Structure to design on (124 residues):
């Protein structure tokens, strides 16, 4: 029962990014968004991606009632910290390896978590 809004979507070729990195980035973002919604009062996910010159902006905004943040770093809310909490780190690492800018933020007014990745100079 999650409201999904896929908006401002353009067909984009991301073939310059390896399949493994693509799965790591998008799989972790979607998994985190779904899990956050399941634990939130409001349940919405907005997916947005768009060409910007030779760049691609990919953004996911999802409902999020609480975050675990220290020094602008987000951590898992799960009890088992040993086996969880690697998703955002994996996303950041893959983004860096692919010359992409990565940003995660929490809006405590709207109770929304936003994950943005700007893939730079990947379109011809």
């Amino acid at each position: 029962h999650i409201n999904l809004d896929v908006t401002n979507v353009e067909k984009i070729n991301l073939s310059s990014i390896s399949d493994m990195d693509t799965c790591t980035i998008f799989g972790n973002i979607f998994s985190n968004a779904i899990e956050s919604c399941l634990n939130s009062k409001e349940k919405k996910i907005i997916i947005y991606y768009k060409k910007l010159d030779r760049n691609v902006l990919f953004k996911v905004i999802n409902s999020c009632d609480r975050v675990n943040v220290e020094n602008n770093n987000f951590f898992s809310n799960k009890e088992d910290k040993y086996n969880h909490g690697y998703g955002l780190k994996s996303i950041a690492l893959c983004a860096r390896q692919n010359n992409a800018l990565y940003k995660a933020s929490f809006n405590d007014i709207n109770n929304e978590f936003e994950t943005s990745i700007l893939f730079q100079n990947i379109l011809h």
Q: What stands out?
A: The beta strands are 3-9, 44-52, 55-63, 68-70, 73-75, 100-107, 112-119. Residues 40 and 80 are 20 Å apart (CA to CA). The chain has a mean pLDDT of 85. The first strand starts at residue 3 and ends at 9.
